[in-house]
Amino acid sequence: MPQHIGIVACSAEGAALCYRTICLEGAQFLGSHDHPEVTMHTHSLAAYMRCIDRADWQGVGELMLSSANKLAKAGASFLICPDNTIHQALPWIERRLPRPWLHIADVVATEALARGYHRLGVTGTRYLVDSEVYPDKLSARGLSYLRPAAGERAEINRIIFDELVCGVSTDAAVEYFQRVITRMKAEGCDAVILGCTEIPLIINDGNSPLPTLDSTRLLARASLARAARDRP
Predict the structure, then answer these.
(1) Does pTM top 0.90 for this prediction?
(2) Domain containing 176: what range?
């Protein structure tokens, strides 16, 4: 049997896309209609946001650890989190995690290298873009990066929290992301990281001015590969 995947979820839309990808693409690894056992746990997004808004990353980490412990008790072999922003709380809890953790930015950086990219635009919430979650992982692999400008960060953040996490997709949001990505391309980026797990709901290789690194689906596929390969 493949290993049991535990999903530490935060926002519903990103977690749902990750879960759906695991279930639908499991057949590529395991056979028709097959996928690994999957368990998901999430605290309310509001509980996360209360901590995030006051920069209480230790509090964010405790919520993640609570989910991780529940998933371990449910039998998960390893853990993933389809939320880029809250990965910056990992340092608070890494040594207490009950199971191995597959880091979303590690997965994206590995894929960027495999595809031969060199300079990556980073999009996501303002909390994520302001953090070192991606810069640390990219720099460790010799990759350079570009963050959105201050005004762009604010508008992208608004789109994510006012629209995407609520399941709302608008043409105006697509057009805004396209303008930001076009600027990143002009500044030498050869790919863009969709570093909020909801961004793939509106941006993809078909409408992006740059090739995309879809953190949500890349994490799901990496977890499938690990579950199928590293069987107990």
Answers:
(1) yes
(2) 105-214
